[in-house]
Design brief:
Layout: H1 7-16, H2 19-36, H3 48-54, E1 125-134, E2 141-142, E3 147-151, E4 173-177, E5 183-189, E6 200-206, H4 209-213, E7 218-225, H5 228-234, H6 243-248, E8 268-272, E9 276-284
């Protein structure tokens, strides 16, 4: 057990997955689907072909810019589902605020920065590319100049700034401004699987980098899900031993966050455990 596990698991689920917390989110997402019409909503985060590709091993590693710069041209699309930020956001909403610290704007989030302990997160390499697009334009227009803050647990399932032993670290957290293609790419490590939550990465979208570093005016808060076959492969490697039994007890269909639909949140992941993986997801806002 680590940091937030054990008695801390109850705290995680009160904020990160409790049903009473999730009901307003679930109701809001069902209303979006009813209004948009299920037959008209394309799978923004992952098409059926993407899901098929994600379920098959890949022999090549995608480049960091693996997400297509052409986000789509459908007449209609749905915004990324709103989700809880959980108990460890580090954005000032639950105590500690890393967004106002010098150094948080960065692409490589594997190391701590500033006056922290200066540690480095170990694990299978993972690049994460998010392409932010304008839902009102049918997902065909990239959102240049927006900002994305991502954070996730380490391979042991612990969160920097909060978990015992790494509360002085701030690795696996970072902010970037989207480029002309609406993209940001972060260099990280594959997160572990802790009890009662499917492997995921948290992210917040802001209207601008200025908003993000001021920790104000969040546009969207959501989570990226990682494919099961890739998780199985990664968790068979050294350092991820505790993730194996945790993942065995879960599925995307039973996870409290993703169980009501994960098509827009399931990342396309390519690569190998030896060379590292590249995850891509289109985020409509």
């Amino acid at each position: 057990m680590h940091g937030h596990h054990g008695d801390g698991v109850d705290e995680v689920h009160e904020h990160d997955r409790g049903l009473s917390y999730d009901l307003p989110v679930l109701a809001r997402r069902r209303m979006i689907r009813l209004m948009a019409g299920a037959s008209l909503i394309p799978l923004v985060g992952c098409t059926s072909e993407d899901e098929k590709a994600a379920s098959s091993p890949s022999s090549s590693t995608a480049s960091p810019g693996g997400a297509s710069s052409s986000a789509g041209s459908s007449a209609e699309c749905a915004t990324i589902p709103d989700e809880t930020a959980g108990p460890f956001p580090g954005d000032g909403s639950n105590g500690v605020n890393v967004l106002k610290e010098s150094g948080v704007v960065r692409g490589d989030i594997t190391r701590s920065f500033g006056d922290s302990a200066g540690g480095t997160a170990e694990g299978v390499p993972l690049s994460v590319t998010l392409t932010v697009v304008d839902a009102a334009s049918g997902c065909g227009t990239p959102k240049q100049g927006a900002a994305v803050y991502i954070w996730h647990c380490d391979r042991a399932g612990d969160y920097s700034l909060y978990s015992e032993g790494i509360a002085d670290e701030n690795y696996l957290r970072g902010v970037q401004e989207t480029d002309a293609a609406g993209q940001v790419t972060f260099t990280s490590v594959f997160p572990g699987c802790y009890p009662n939550r499917w492997p995921h990465i948290h992210f917040e979208v802001y209207g601008s980098l200025e908003d993000a570093t001021a920790a104000t005016s969040i546009t969207n808060t959501s989570q990226l899900a990682l494919p099961e076959d890739v998780c199985d492969t990664v968790y068979a490697t050294e350092g991820y031993e505790e993730s194996v039994p945790n993942l065995a007890e879960l599925s995307l269909e039973t996870d409290s966050i993703f169980r009501d639909g994960h098509d827009q949140q399931l990342a396309t992941v390519k690569g190998s455990a030896a060379e590292g993986y590249a995850a891509t997801l289109t985020v409509a806002v």
